[in-house]
Amino acid sequence: MSNNLPKVAWIGLGIMGSPMSENLIKAGYAVTGYTLEQDKIDRLVAAGGSGASSIADAVKDADVVITMVPASPQVEAIAYGPEGILENAKRGALLVDMSSITPQTSVDLAKNAAEKGIRVLDAPVSGGEAGAIEAVLSIMVGGEQADFDTAKPLLEALGKTIVLCGPHGSGQTVKAANQLIVAVNIQACAEAVVFLEKSGVDLAAALDVLNGGLAGSTVLTRKKDNFLKRDFAPGFRIDLHHKDMGIVTDAARNVGAALPVGGVVAQLVASLRAQGDGGLDHSALLRSVERLSGSQV
């Protein structure tokens, strides 16, 4: 292990955080992790990382602190308070929050961290579980150029497309747009699947040829098997996409942008949650179209 690489603390070892932190270890970084479930910490240790007993313990010696938790309340819970990151990380540390949260939460975090001499980037990602495992995530970043330059080698161990999008909160704004496009895209694919099946067409053949033309997309490539097999094991849960549709519809209202189709899809995502499908993959938007089309799901 080369000693000139920054020491990393990783908070949040879920579906995304576990494989991402392991990719950093493979790239030669010393990673100390903390998360709520002990078995996830054990997994990190088995991969060559170190476990911590608390957030304070994880971050105290870190040059870079990376956080990957579900939503704004969790980011605030781990950042603030006597046991939180801001009170326990060293001055000059760089906090890279890779969670998907409201742009305003990121702006506030950067401001509060600056008072402690801690630099912040918001760096949410797209690419889902597969992208995390394969280290091909798209990473959209908000913050200062100098901090981005510092973080870039580390982010290159996690993703393929890494772009500074503007000041603090900009990464989250671009991520919100990403989630809008993905949800609408999945919904369109789901409607096509039900239409094709009810028409008696060979679905696998149809999706192959569609994906080779203008209707093709990364969403269809990644989710084709979910549609064909009705396999909705979560790569990205409906619960989280519901949270993200709330972020994008709220942020769009604040800036005066109309999202007519996004608003409809946001309601379809909300409806899936109300039907008890919140723990399924977002490709389960197919179930909503099936219900609307009279199928027993």
From TrEMBL:
EC number(s) from the headed UniProt entry: 1.1.1.60
Claim: Lipid metabolism is one of the keywords in the record: no
Broad EC category: oxidoreductase
Alphabetical keyword list: NAD, Oxidoreductase
Family annotation (Pfam families): NAD_binding_11, NAD_binding_2
One example GO MF annotation: 2-hydroxy-3-oxopropionate reductase activity
Record carries keyword ATP-binding: no
Domain 6-phosphogluconate dehydrogenase NADP-binding residues, every copy: 7-166
InterPro entries membership: 6-PGluconate_DH-like_C_sf, 6PGD_dom2, 6PGDH_NADP-bd, HIBADH-like_NADP-bd, HIBADH-related, NAD(P)-bd_dom_sf, Tartro_sem_red
Membrane-spanning ranges: none
Cross-referenced Gene3D superfamilies: N-(1-d-carboxylethyl)-l-norvaline Dehydrogenase, domain 2, NAD(P)-binding Rossmann-like Domain
Location of the 3-hydroxyisobutyrate dehydrogenase-like NAD-binding domain: 169-287
NCBIfam families for this protein: tartro_sem_red
Family: Belongs to the HIBADH-related family.
UniProt protein name: 2-hydroxy-3-oxopropionate reductase
Organism annotation: Streptomyces cyaneofuscatus
